[in-house]
Design a protein that fits this description.
The protein is α+β, with helices and mostly antiparallel strands. 31% of the residues lie in helices and 15% in strands. It has two domains: 41 residues, no CATH class; 108 residues, Ribosomal Protein S8, Chain: A, domain 1 (2-Layer Sandwich). The protein contains four helices and six strands, in the order H-E-E-E-H-E-H-E-H-E. Helix 2 links the parallel strand 3 and strand 4. Helix 2 packs across helix 3.
C-alpha cells in the first residue's frame, strides 16, 4: 500500500494506539509518542452485538457464526459478544446458545462478562497484549450479558 493512501485511510477513522490503547488518528500517538507501525494498526478488538433486534435463537446463532468469521478474516484477536442476559433475569436462551457454540470449538479462550475483571490473570494478559480492552465499558462490572472470546490460544 502506498504511503499516501495509508495516511488518507488513517485520517478517515480513529485507530487504537498499540502502546497505550488510546484512540488516535495519526501514525505517531500524541499521548505516548509511540510510532504505530502498519502491522499494529488493525484493530485487535471488536464488539459484536447479536441481540440488537431481539432475534430468535437461530438467527442469533447464525449471526454469531457470520460475525466471528468476519472478525477472524479482519485480523481481530478478541471479540466481545453482546448477547444479553434474558428478560427473566436468570440467563437468556441466546446466552445459552453462545455458550453451546463455544463449547464445540477446540481453540480459543472464553471469558464470561461476569469474570471480565482486571484482577483476573487471563484478563490482565489480554489487556497487556490488547491495550484497547482496558477502555471497555464492561471491565470490572460483572456483566452477564456479554462474553469475550479470543481466537486461537491467548
Amino acid at each position: 500500500m502506498e504511503n499516501s493512501d495509508y495516511k488518507k485511510r488513517l485520517m478517515k477513522k480513529f485507530i487504537i494506539c498499540y502502546n497505550c490503547g488510546n484512540a488516535i488518528n495519526a501514525l505517531i500517538c500524541p499521548i505516548c509518542k509511540e510510532i504505530n507501525h502498519i502491522d499494529n494498526l488493525c484493530n485487535s478488538f471488536k464488539e459484536i452485538n447479536i441481540k440488537y433486534d431481539n432475534p430468535s435463537i437461530k438467527v442469533a446463532a447464525n449471526r454469531l457464526q457470520l460475525e466471528l468469521r468476519k472478525a477472524k478474516g479482519e485480523g481481530v484477536k478478541v471479540v466481545k459478544i453482546i448477547h444479553g442476559w434474558g428478560s427473566t433475569g436468570v440467563g437468556g436462551d441466546i446466552k445459552i446458545a453462545v455458550n453451546n457454540h463455544f463449547s464445540k470449538i477446540q481453540s480459543g479462550v472464553i471469558i464470561p462478562g461476569e469474570k471480565f475483571n482486571s484482577s483476573q490473570r487471563q484478563v490482565k494478559n489480554w489487556i497487556k497484549k490488547y491495550p484497547e480492552l482496558k477502555n471497555d465499558d464492561t471491565l470490572n462490572r460483572k456483566n452477564k450479558g456479554v462474553t469475550f472470546y479470543a481466537f486461537g490460544k491467548n
